[in-house]
Amino acid sequence: MFRTLFAFVFLLSFSLTACEERLPPPEEEPPPGEEQPPPDDQPPPDDQPPPDDQPPPGPMGESSNAPQQEADPDIEVTQDDLEAIAEIEVEAQNLQIDRHTDPEGFESLVRDEGMEMEEYEQLNFAIHRDPELQQRLYEKIEELLEDA
Q: Where does this protein have compositionally biased stretches of type Acidic residues (predicted)?
């Protein structure tokens, strides 16, 4: 019962973490009664050319020099990757290391598994996008918990 509850809580936090990584930081709201100035990244009106210091927007209105927000969609998650992620997550839970409150400790766990944080985050994102991978990760976590 405990193992199932732990795995469920883990998957829920895993999903929330992946969502948080993709969300932009919250913007401050002006006090009531004050107008909010237009955002700087708003495209210029159609009748005006873009300023000289900014490249024209891409085909979907996005800036062509904007940093890529999502992981590589072609990243392949192997069984070894799933096992490493599961071991990292179970060890983090056992040691009560949270990636948000103790990023150095969490990064140390990731490195101990032979992975860099960027690779971990890309794999995490790829797993979050694929329900089959999520299920396989869930099963691997349960297996690790049973062996403990």
A: 71-81
Return the pLDDT at 61: 39
Tell me, what amino acid is at 14?
F
The b/e string for 65-101 (b: 16+ C-beta within 10 A; e otherwise) is: eeeeeebeeeeebeeebbbbbbbbbbebbeeebebee
Residue 65 φ/ψ region, left for φ over 0, alpha for ψ in the -120 to 50 degree band, beta for the rest: alpha
pLDDT at 9 exceeding the cut of 80: no
Average pLDDT (20-46) is 56
Domain positions in the chain: 79-148
Q: What is the DSSP letter of 34?
A: S
Contact yes or no for 57/43 (Cβ under 8 A): yes
